[in-house]
Recover the amino acids of this structure.
C-alpha cells in the first residue's frame, strides 16, 4: 500500500513538473501595435536552449487589457532560431490564457514564416546554454505585471517608472538600457500635451480626456543619446487614445524628460553594480 501511494505521488509530481517548471521571466520589450493591443513581452531566461544548430526559447505577452471577445490576457510563445545568417525566428507553439490563467486554446503547428528580428535574437543568445529541446513549458502564472514606482515631480507632471520594464544589454558589458516611464500630467503639462497632439492631424480630435502618457525609451550608456520606441496617451479610465512610434537615435537635451528618464536608468544600473540585485 505504501509503495503504491509513493508511486502515485511520484506520478503526480512527474505530471506537474512536465506541464510547467520554475521560470526566470525577464523584461524583453514593449509592444504597442499588436493585433491584440498593447502588451509587454518577457523572456524566460532559463528556457533558452541551444544545440549549436538552433536556439529554442519561450516568451510571454502580458496584455494591458483582457480581450473582450475571448478573454485572452496572456499569450505564451515557443520560438526557434536557426543559427545561420541572417538570424531569424519562427513560432513553434502558441498558448492563450485568460485573466485567471486558465488555458483558452493553443496552436502547436510550427509556423512556416520567419521573422527578421536580429535585436531580439541577439538578446536571447545572451541567455543560451547547451541542452536539448523539451516539451515542458514555463509557468505562465508567474509572469510579471507592470509595477509603477514614483521617481520625481517635474514641472508639468509626476514621473513614474515600471520596475519590471528595465533591462540593459549586452549582459557582461551593457551598451543599451531600456525602460518604460509614465508621465501623469498636471494642468500645465496636460495643456502642453494636448496642444502638441492637436498639431498632429492624426490626433486632432478625441484626446481632450487624456490623463497620462506612457513612453518606452532606449538609451546609449556611452553617449548622451536615446530613442523613443513608442509613446501612448491614456485617459483616466486607462483606455489608450494615441500611439506614436519613432526609432531614430538623437542627442538628448539637458533637463528634458528624456534626460530625466536616462538619469533614472543610469541610477538603476549603478545600484545593480553596487548591490547586485
Amino acid at each position: 500500500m505504501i509503495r503504491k501511494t509513493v508511486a502515485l505521488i511520484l506520478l503526480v509530481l512527474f505530471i506537474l513538473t512536465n506541464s510547467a517548471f520554475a521560470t526566470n521571466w525577464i523584461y524583453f520589450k514593449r509592444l504597442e501595435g499588436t493585433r491584440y493591443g498593447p502588451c509587454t513581452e518577457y523572456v524566460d531566461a532559463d528556457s533558452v536552449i541551444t544545440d549549436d544548430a538552433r536556439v529554442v526559447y519561450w516568451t510571454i505577452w502580458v496584455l494591458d487589457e483582457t480581450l473582450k471577445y475571448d478573454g485572452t490576457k496572456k499569450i505564451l510563445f515557443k520560438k526557434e532560431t536557426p543559427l545561420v545568417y541572417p538570424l531569424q525566428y519562427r513560432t513553434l507553439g502558441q498558448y492563450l490564457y485568460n485573466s485567471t490563467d486558465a488555458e483558452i486554446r493553443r496552436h502547436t503547428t510550427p509556423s512556416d514564416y520567419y521573422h527578421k528580428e536580429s535585436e531580439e535574437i541577439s538578446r536571447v543568445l545572451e541567455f543560451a546554454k547547451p541542452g536539448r529541446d523539451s516539451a515542458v513549458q514555463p509557468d505562465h502564472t508567474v509572469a510579471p505585471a507592470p509595477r509603477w514606482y514614483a521617481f520625481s515631480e517635474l514641472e508639468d507632471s509626476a514621473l513614474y517608472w515600471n520596475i519590471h520594464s528595465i533591462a540593459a544589454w549586452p549582459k557582461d558589458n551593457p551598451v543599451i538600457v531600456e525602460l518604460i516611464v509614465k508621465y501623469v500630467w498636471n494642468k500645465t503639462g496636460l495643456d502642453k500635451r494636448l496642444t502638441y497632439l492637436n498639431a498632429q492631424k492624426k490626433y486632432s480630435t478625441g484626446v481632450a480626456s487624456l490623463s497620462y502618457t506612457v513612453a518606452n525609451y532606449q538609451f546609449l550608456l556611452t553617449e548622451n543619446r536615446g530613442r523613443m520606441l513608442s509613446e501612448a496617451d491614456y485617459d483616466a479610465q486607462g483606455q489608450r487614445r494615441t500611439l506614436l512610434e519613432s526609432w531614430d537615435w538623437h542627442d538628448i537635451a539637458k533637463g528634458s524628460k528624456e534626460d530625466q528618464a536616462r538619469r533614472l536608468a543610469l541610477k538603476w544600473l549603478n545600484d545593480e553594480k553596487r548591490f547586485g540585485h
